[in-house]
Amino acid sequence: MAVKAITPDYKGEAPDSVENFHGNIMFHVNWEKHLMFCAPLAFAMPPDAPFSTLLEETLPTAYGYHPDWKKVDWSTVEWTLDHEPFDPKHDASLEENGIVHRSLLRFTVPGAEGIAGSGS
Amino acid sequence: MSRKLNLRERYQRMTRDLAWEPSYQSKSDIYPQMEFEGIKIEDWDKWEDPFRLTMDAYWKYQAEKERKLYSIIDAFAQNNGHLNVTDARYVNALKLFLTGVSPLEYAAHRGFAMVGRQFAGVGTQVACQMQSIDELRHVQTQVHTISHYNKYFNGFHDFRHMHDRVWYLSVPKSFFDDAMSAGPFEFITAISFSFEYVLTNLLFMPFMSGAAFNGDMATVTFGFSAQSDESRHMTLGLEVIKFMAEQHPDNIPIIQKWIDKWFWRGYRLLTLVGMMMDYMLPKKVMSWREAWEIYFEQNGGALFEDLARYGLRMPKYWEQTIEGKDHITHQAWGIFYNYTHAAAFHTWIPDDEELDWLSAKYPDTFDQYYRPRFEYWREQAEAGNRFYNPTLPMLCQTCQIPMGFTEPGNPTTIGFRASDFDGNRYHFCSDGCKDIFDNEPQKFCQSWMPVHQIYQGNCGGATVPDVLNWYHLNFGVDNFDYAQSPDRQHWQQWKGEPAEESDAPDEAA
Amino acid sequence: MADAKNRVYLALQNNEDARPIIEAIEEDNPHAEINHFPAMVKIDAVGKLIVRRETVEEKIGREWDPQEIHVSLVSLSGNVIEDDDEFGVERHN
Within a 10 A sphere around the Cβ of B420, how many other Cβ atoms? Predict the structure, then answer.
């Protein structure tokens, strides 16, 4: 849609393009049905970081507080990447797994329904 | 008493007679912003003045309001009025209000001065200029209140600086920046109509009643003093809509789009106010749900029945607010509970009586979805393991609130929307926020997103203390749970209450 | 929202200045409903609400300009009616 502006051909500069993140990409992760974490999270990591780093270091720090965290078994976790079913290769990098700047990962842990089954 | 002129004539003299036809400059050079938004005005003389308050009467009544206001604020200060509030927790609502809303009053002062210069009709110019002066008065009265509370409580010390930097203050700031960087017709539709007329009652009326109920006479006084100007502002908003609608049928779709946009933006912004009503007032006046029913569903409903004659309809997605009224305040309090280690005010878990009040006011949602998480958090806090979310949240590109709102019809699943624009992906919390972006991507791709700025290294560093330092917040003083706060300790000393054992604040990452 | 048709309201501060105005409204608008909130009185009606100069003047024993209502007015909903003798709001659909 054409922008309505006083200046002809007005164009906005996007401050959040990937080149402004000093070699990192920023992407998002949401643990479904665990709304005690009030919102999905934002992470900035190098695109060549192995996916396993996310599983072994990043997410345990982010989500480990939750009593359901001990139910996490990565071999049974269900993922989507940008709303498509996703089967991550743990040894491959984020980039090789198709995770790009502003990607959204969502994961569901079977049998984990949050505090008292409330989705919290 | 004989009157030479009646009210209408007097006002006519003051406004229309100030205008003249330019002879050596073109109107389009004098009013260069009148065309580009697409609004067509055939005859500015058809403008109906919302109020016929002449300048002499204006100064007289404003002076009277000021006299009343400052005598109460003086008495409040002299009598240590802050000690009469129900509980020091209450002051946190005030921190959010005075750091979040007061800078908007100043922005409104600037905004109305700007559009008052741009409108080509003299009636409109005068109405905007008067409102500009009102808004300056509002921010001044609020700064006086900040000044008093700042002597006794933390988090008030640098509201101007904070407004430009702190993550949650970017929500109100970006709201007003959006309006001010639009054209004059959109600005006045956004602020005078959508915000002032449709939504502002939700900001002032229940909140100021709440302040009264909680013993905060300083806030009641500035609030109602500001609100006494608000009736004029609201009426200006209604007149603006009617005037544009009557001037040209081509204006209708443009106005409708603005109403859709600004209703949704205002609704998202008011989530913060709803949260104050439901969670931050120790003595509660009414729930957000009740306030929404009275001030939006009833009165907004009547208003839009009124506007149907012009072909204007209820704002798009208003139905989602009817479902949302049972959820958004609980979700917002959850957001601030998660990130209070990075905020200039404290949060806490409601006590049992308050939880029961919430259960009663939100019978369809609170016990099922929200109470379990609050009770779990409380249990953990009592065990010395207070929850602070260690990771930065994903934000909505439009409203800039962390993406904590759930999908309509599915209260356990976050709502996700996204758009691709110019090689980048943008994320949104709702259909309303996505539509706003999609209509003006060149504008909203530029948003200053606090989380993204932190990850780009533009906010003083990578740790919470670094960023708080850059915000000018005092780590360990202004932030963290109310239970461990210096505010609470001081309050207990002043009130002679026994201090409870409490652990040192948990250091979040 | 069937019961919302043509609703209007005036909200005034609950103080000494506003009390005679509220009483005048009650007297001149028998269909009005008065709702008390902390520090504020909200007067709801269907169709129209009017504050008459004469009625207020009778109550306060001095001349009263309807524009003085601005000092105590908290909020309103409806289309404003304003002249030298009255102030009010109305809606007719």
Answer: 10
User: CA torsion, points B428, B430, B431, B437, in degrees to nearest 10?
Assistant: -30
What SS3 class is residue B426?
strand
Q: Which residues of chain B does A33 touch, with a Cβ-Cβ cutoff of 8 Å?
A: 412-413
Report the SS3 class of residue C45.
strand
Interface of C with B (CB under 8 A): 1, 3-9, 11, 13, 37-40, 42, 63, 65, 67-68, 70-80, 82-84, 91, 93
pLDDT in tens, B450-481: 999 999 999 999 999 999 999 999 999 999 99
Q: Which residues are within 8 A (CB) of B239 and not within 5 positions of it... i.e. 6 or more apart?
A: B47, B48, B49, B50, B127
Residue pair B431/B320 in contact (Cβ under 8 Å)? The answer is: yes
The verdict on ipTM greater than 0.95 is yes
Strand arrangement of the beta sheet that strand C48-52 belongs to: C48-52, C86-90, C79-82
The DSSP string of B49-110 is PS----HHHHHHHHHHHHHHHHHHHHHHHHTTGGGGSS-TTHHHHHHHHHHHTHHHHHHHHH
Q: Which chain B residue has the Cα nearest residue C73?
A: B228
Q: What pLDDT score does B301 carry? A: 87
Is residue C76 within 8 Å of residue C9, measured between CB atoms?
yes
- Bridge pairing between strands A25-31 and A104-108: parallel
For B209, which of C1, C7, C37 is closest by C-beta distance? C37
Q: C39 vs B301: CB contact, 8 Å cut-off? A: no
* pLDDT for the residue numbered A9: 87
C4 pLDDT tier (thresholds 50, 70, 90) = low
CA distances from B220 to B69, B106, B172, B210, B226 (A): 10, 19, 21, 8, 10
Domain residue ranges of chain C, discontinuous segments joined by +: 2-90
Give the type of residue at B132.
Answer: S
Classify residue A48 by burial, with Cβ atoms within 10 Å: 0-12, 13-18, 19+. Answer: exposed
Residue position matching structure tokens 């606090």: B450
Q: What was the pLDDT predicted at A1? A: 53
Place of tokens 């932190």: B454
**How many interchain CB pairs under 8 A, A with B?**
154
Quote the pLDDT of residue B311: 97
Mean pLDDT of B181-188: 97
Homologous superfamily of domain range B15-20+49-495: Ribonucleotide Reductase, subunit A (1.10.620.20)
- Mean pLDDT across B173-190: 97
How do residues B294-335 score in pLDDT, each as one tens digit? 989 988 888 999 899 999 999 999 999 999 999 999 999 999
CA-to-CA dists, residue A14 to B335, B398, B458, angstroms: 27, 14, 15
B303 inside 8 A of chain C by CB:
yes
The 8-class DSSP code of residue A80 comes to: E
- The better pLDDT of the pair A8, B336 is held by B336
Residue type, B281: L
Structural domains of chain A, ranges and CATH numbers in brackets: 35-117 (3.10.20.560)
Fold designation for C2-90 = Phenol Hydroxylase P2 Protein (3.90.56)
Q: Are B196 and B237 in contact (CB under 8 A)?
A: yes
Backbone angles phi, psi at C82, to 5 degrees: -150, 120
First to last CA, chain B: 73
